[in-house]
Every structure is written in structure tokens, then in C-alpha cells.
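Before the break, one more example. Copy the sequence into your notebook; we will annotate it together after we see the structure.
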Amino acid sequence: MTNTQKPDLSHLWMPFTANKQFKADPRLLVGAKGMYYTTTEGQQVLDATAGLWCVNAGHGREEISTAIANQTRTLDYAPSFQIGHTDSFRAAQAIAQLMPNGLDRIFFTNSGSEAVDTALKIAIAYHRARGEGQRTRLIGRERGYHGVGFGGISVGGISNNRRNFSSMLLPHVDHLPHTHNLEQNAFTRGQPEWGAHLADELENIIALHDASTIAAVIVEPMAGSTGVLVPPKGYLERLRAITAKHGILLIFDEVITAFGRLGYNTASEMLGITPDLITLAKGISNAAVPAGAVAVHRDIHDTILDASANGIEFFHGYTYSAHPLATAAILATLEIYEREQLFERARALSPYLENAAHQLKGRPHVIDIRNIGLVAGIELESRPQAPGARAAEAFQKCFDKGVLIRYTGDTIAISPPLIVTEEQIDQIFDTLAEVLTTID
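Here is what the structure looks like once it is written out:
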């Protein structure tokens, strides 16, 4: 079978996909380069979503491909238990240099889901190491997305991800309210002025359960997969102050926001807030090889290690932690980011994307537009008894016109690779504007 022939679709159970609908009318890709995918029909499709928020440097980067290919010939695999390889240490150092001050201990995983579960386990292990083993409660947030491991969906707050597994989720978990409020914040450019007070609900949760039982709070600085929810001004600062006051660890899930998506190394840097742990993935390797990590404050790392006199200090890890191909991809990716100054480029382009996105105000069905960094969310009014149908139709029509967007519920998310041009931003939003006029 050649690369352009359509395969038998029956064998693959696709993730987060309406399988029956997709296989009746499939959209199949066979190539990618720069800002574009190529379909089996040879159509060029502009990638307005950086794959799944992850291909920050654009597709088909030869530097990354060469690094991976060379690695397969020299060291295709090395175990990470009780032995190491040199690039794992180099990659950890390179990532640490991009993290907020103090978060310079890096634990490698293979995905954002694994990074989240790892961070939750580190938080619990930390409190146990310091003699407060009763601190096991975890606090997430409504509409939060933290991957699909049992830990991640337990602290996560997307109902569809939790519903079938509700009886098997982690105990001792509570949730903060989400920050989305159309009445107060519709069509805000950047961070909303209203909503910082929502962080104070954490004090009520602490009063209910007692601070001495709570290990960590985990939030996305910008909630991406639930529909681009931008943090209100002062909200994350208040969460940081409350957690610090009560000895609770603060985890920022930056699987989406790290590595230039907001125009900075991390959202933490952009907002001037330093959490205790940061989860990483997606842009860490430009998605060329699955990879993830947790950046941990050195005091947490040292406390766990110092609590064990001999032997293994933290009984956790993965067969493919710091896989040689992943670390080769990470090192090559970080070099591209630095050499081409892609984070600075994203920062400079952010106002242009903001203006382009907000030109959709007044278009049919648009009830809100949200943006931060090189991200925009366009929320559509849902059809009666058919939530998500309008955005799904917009997705299909944009694809047919040569632009790949992403949608969740009735919110369309735009997050192009950091190499996007102003002309391509215009194409994305002009196409979306045209499509919206064709949707009932």
C-alpha cells in the first residue's frame, strides 16, 4: 500500500473521536511541512492549531528529524532505572534554564497525562517526607483538563472525561469553581478585570477540609482544552498567596502554555507567579517524539531525597522516561526556539492575532471571543438540544476550505505554530468568518 492509498479504517479505535462519523467521511493526512498538512487528496491545509497545541516550531523541522535519526544509530534506547545516558542530563539542564527560579529539578515522562500524575505523586511524597503524611487531599478546578490518567481526571473538571469512571476516581479530591463568566467578561481582550475573587473559594475549601489535610492545588494558568479560559487579573496571584499561607503546594499545568505559546518560556514567567511544580509536554519536543516532564522546585526534590537514608527515594518512573529519541528531539527543539527567537516572535504577533480574532465580533452565532498570547477562543451559541454541533460544522467546513481549527463543545480554539505569518493569521480568521455565515 502506498502512502496515498486509504487504509482499512476498521481496526483503529481513535481517541477523542466520533469514530462512526469519522470513518463514514474520513479526513486523512499523509504529510506535513512548515505551516501545512497534506491530505490524501493532495490538499494543503493550513494548521491553525499547531497539531494539538504542540507543534510550536512548525512541521517537518530538519534539525529535529536529523537529531532523532542520528540518535537511532548511536543509542536507540537506554534504561533510566539505575543507569542514565548523557543527553537525559543535558535535556534536563536545558529545560531547567527556561523554568522559573528554583524549579530546576526535572523528572521526565512521556506525555502531559503522565506529567500530571507524576506531579500529584511528588506532592504527596513531599508532604510525607516532611512528616505530614496526612496531607493527601488534592484540589483541582471545574472545567480543568489534566490529561486522562486516573489522577488527572480526578483533579480535572470536564464532565465527559469523568462520567464513565466516576466510581473509580481518586478519593479526597475537591474542585474550585471555574472562572468563565460571559455576563461579566464577554469579548475581553487579554486577561479579564473581573474574577480574581473566585480564588477565595479556596479558603472555603480549606476551612471545610482543614489545611493540614491538603497536599496540592493544580490549575492550568490558561485552561486550553476546555475552551480557552483566560485567568482574571489577580486570580492566580491570590491562589499563590493562599496556598503559600497554608503550606499547600501549587502546581501549574503548563502542558499547553509552556514553550512559547503565550510568548514566554512559561505562563509563570509571563504572569510573574512562581508555583511549586510545573507540568510540561507538547511543545517540549515540538511533538516529534512523545515527551513530557515535571519541573520541580529543588527544595521539594531535596526534601524527598533527604528523607530516605539509602536506596530508591521515589518509587515512580516509566520505561521510556528520558527516552534517547525524546531527549534528542527536546535538545534540537529548544535550540530552534532560541536560535529563531520564536517565543519573542509569538509575543510580537500576539496583538495581531488578538485584533484578527476580535474582528469576528458580530458574526453569526459568536457570543464571546477570548485571547491570550498566541491563542484565541471563539465561543458560539449552542443549538437547542445540540451542544457542540455548530462548532463541529465550522471545523468541517474550515477543513474543506484548507484551514485546520480545533473545537471543544461550541468553542473554536486557534493556536497556530509560532512560525505563523500575519498573512496566515488573516487567512485563518477570514476563512472562519466566511464559514460562520454559512452555518445555521
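The chain has two domains: 19-57+341-436, 65-339. The longest helix spans residues 112-129. Try to locate both features in your own notes.
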